[in-house]
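Researcher: Quick test of sequence recovery. Tokens follow.
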């Protein structure tokens, strides 16, 4: 591998060009065997052939190693050149690394055979010292690159095996997580159906029965009791519908798309709140400033829920008077303001765990926005600012 960010094809070309240029420099200075008897062009022929084979070291490793052996013989006969020998060792390395698995065994056997034969001939026709020197050189040329490539390939295959094992482990963990989520959603759906939905059904049934009883008693249509029973029945039926939709969503998981409420439905939401708050002297008003544009679904859902919870709190706790809801659409953010009358002792004190305020703050915080709520003089003010592009706290 070269220390540059090159593609495999570019890397092969770079090796071939560097080997060819280095060999030509050596030939120009006569740095090869028998330089005083052999012309430089004769030594350059096997050098050029080896450089050409380097271009195909990755795509045709078997052929380049086989032909490279023949070219190597020509290199030895034409005058040993270091550049040609180094490129030949690279061909052997590439044959083991990119070729078939059996190439390692084949080249090990041929390398050992060549080393034994050549070193034996050196001992037979020369000396023991010469034979040992030939054995070392042959080991470096024929066996060194094969051993190195074999080791690199084993580590690469082992790394690939570990990667696949890690992916399988992650996949199994994801299956387990999804199974646990599905089981928990099913348990929540059962609890909502068996407890909350049944209570809402009972409220709707009793409200309907009370309306029927009032009609049999021939009460006046403007009787506040009839209006209250109508509001109770309407809200319980609507809550039961929402509860059943939520139960279906929990049981269906991600298979069923979730249709988030839109800010376009705020008029309907305020109309229902006005009907519910008429008997307590509450009047609701909605104002919007600026072009709404296209809001991301999380931002629109959070804004709708914040307004909805603010109206619910006003119905539960506000003193008689006007409740004003104002939406300001800016280029970068959406500002929500809800003002309701607040005079200690004059409003209704219905039970609550302040979970609504916590939920509104969490919705704004998850989108990278801000939220405040509290009394100020004779008004309870709710302020929320949501960015048009949701961002988490880490990225804000």
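Model:
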């Amino acid at each position: 591998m070269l220390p540059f960010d090159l593609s495999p094809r570019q890397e092969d070309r770079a090796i071939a060009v560097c080997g060819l240029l280095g060999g030509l420099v050596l030939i120009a200075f006569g740095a090869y065997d028998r330089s005083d008897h052999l012309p430089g062009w004769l030594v350059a022929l096997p050098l050029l052939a080896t450089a050409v084979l380097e271009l195909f070291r990755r795509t045709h490793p078997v052929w380049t190693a086989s032909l490279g052996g023949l070219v190597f013989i020509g290199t030895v006969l034409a005058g040993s050149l270091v550049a040609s020998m180094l490129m030949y060792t690279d061909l052997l390395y590439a044959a083991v690394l990119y070729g078939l698995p059996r190439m390692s065994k084949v080249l090990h056997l041929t390398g050992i055979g060549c080393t034994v034969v050549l070193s034996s001939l050196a001992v037979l026709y020369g000396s023991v010292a010469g034979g040992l020197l030939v054995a070392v050189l042959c080991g470096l040329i024929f066996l060194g690159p094969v051993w190195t490539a074999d080791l690199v390939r084993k580590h690469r295959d082992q790394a690939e095996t570990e990667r696949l094992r890690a992916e399988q482990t992650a996949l199994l963990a994801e299956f387990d997580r999804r199974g646990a989520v599905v089981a928990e959603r099913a348990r929540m759906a059962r609890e909502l159906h068996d407890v909350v939905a049944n209570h809402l059904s009972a409220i709707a049934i009793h409200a309907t029965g009370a309306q029927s009883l009032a009609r049999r008693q021939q009460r006046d249509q403007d009787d506040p009791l009839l209006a209250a029973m109508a509001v109770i029945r309407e809200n319980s039926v609507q809550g039961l519908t929402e509860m059943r939709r939520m139960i279906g969503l929990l049981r269906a998981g991600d298979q069923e798309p979730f249709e988030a409420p839109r800010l376009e439905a705020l008029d309907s939401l305020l109309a229902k709140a006005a009907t519910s708050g008429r008997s307590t002297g509450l009047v609701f008003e909605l104002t919007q400033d600026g072009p709404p544009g296209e809001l991301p679904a999380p931002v629109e859902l959070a804004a709708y829920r914040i307004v909805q919870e603010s109206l619910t709190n006003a119905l539960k706790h506000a003193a008689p008077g006007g409740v004003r809801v104002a939406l300001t659409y800016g280029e970068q953010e959406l500002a929500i303001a809800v003002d309701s009358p607040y005079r200690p002792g004059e409003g209704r004190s219905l039970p609550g765990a302040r979970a609504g305020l916590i939920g509104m703050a969490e919705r704004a915080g998850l989108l990278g926005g801000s939220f405040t709520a509290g009394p100020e003089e004779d008004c309870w003010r709710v302020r929320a600012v949501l960015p048009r592009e949701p961002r988490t706290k880490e990225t804000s």
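Strands lie at 282-289, 321-329, 333-341, 370-376, 379-387.
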